[in-house]
Amino acid sequence: MDTALTRLVGVRHPIVQTGMGWVAGPRLVSAAAEAGALGVLASATMSPRRLRDAVREVRSRTQAPFGVNLRADAGDARERVRIIVEEGVRVASFALAPSRELIAELKDAGVVVIPSVGARRHAEKVAAWGADAVVVQGGEGGGHTGDVATTVLLPQVVDAVGIPVVAAGGFHDGRGLVAALAYGAAGVAMGTRFLLTSDSTVPDAVKARYLAATVRDVTVTRAVDGLPHRMLRTEFVAALERSGRARALLHAVRHAAGFRRVSGLTWRGMIRDGLAMRRGKDLTWSQVLLAANTPMLLRAAMVDGRTDLGVMASGQVAGVIGDLPSCAELVGRIMEEAEETLTRLAAAGRSGPDR
Question: Within this chain, do residues 136 and 243 fall inside the same structural domain, yes or no?
């Protein structure tokens, strides 16, 4: 299926596997890329040295294009940009809008820049700064999210910018891909659907919790880091919501120390990133500390399998997913269903509404 997205990044299918922290590692990314989608490596939870190793591992597994997701507000963002340029990575994606200068630096090096946004004004800003495309996530999406549904936000952004738009939030099958294309998108991005594949390294017990969830078991809470965060509702999340702010901050400081060791950041670097985060999102210092807590709470579940001590970011689509295909099976199934849907719609159009 040929779209502006496939032409821009050189993939066979207009599908993006998003850069989920602790989830989108070399195995998942290379499997998604081999299946013809754009696999995106999550780098925010990696040290720069580990990022370079991970990029090389993906490269050893596939010759297909792939991307790396970066934190635009990280103190070492330029070092990470240098790594992906030196390693010949095709795409740089961002969870927050990168600066005009960072976009220019990447584009000068031949890297395709695709920021993720949750509001029309943010899409307009990065488009004016030279972004090549934009991923727009509606409120159905997992992790940090907004409150505007994809079906409302997507057409707003498509109408507002002149660059390819990739739709995220609520997509898991071929019907959703066709719907996104009908709205004017150039493809879809999916996180939870790729997390729930056999190529994902998330522990089986954690995947089982996702598969058992209904749509009502996926909630939005501010208890983790003070910001709206969509995840599975568990006993642990309920306990966080009941606990006082003072207790939450104590846990946050302890987990921030753990994240410092895993990520390779210094305390100075973490404080610098905290300042950038505080300015970028207008957070209080309490919220900054709670935000530092989040990566380790996610790691506890996604790496260690401790659903009793961790959180599981999730899109609402978890409630309608019931299997664990390989990335190749998933992408093939989506594209087959999309073609069947387009054929059915074309036949309906030829027969007319009165027949």
Answer: no
b/e per residue 22-50 (b: at least 16 CB within 10 A): bbbbbebbbbbbbbbbbbbbbbbbbebee
pLDDT in tens, 170-186: 999 999 999 999 999 99
Tokens representing residue 153 in the block: 């936000």
At residue 310's C-alpha, the angle toward residues 308 and 316, to 5°, is: 100
62 by DSSP, 3-state: which? coil
Query: Which tokens hold the place of 219?
Result: 């909630």
Q: What is the pLDDT of residues 219-268, one digit of tens each?
A: 999 888 778 999 999 998 888 788 766 666 666 666 565 555 555 556 66
**Number of independent structural domains in the chain:** 2
Given a contact cutoff of 8 angstroms between Cβ atoms, the answer to whether 249 and 290 are in contact is yes
Whether 33 contacts 58, CB under 8 Å: yes
pLDDT digits over 284-296, tens only? 666 666 666 678 7
Instruction: Tell me which residue range forms the domain holding 41.
Output: 4-201+325-347
According to DSSP, residue 184 is labeled: T
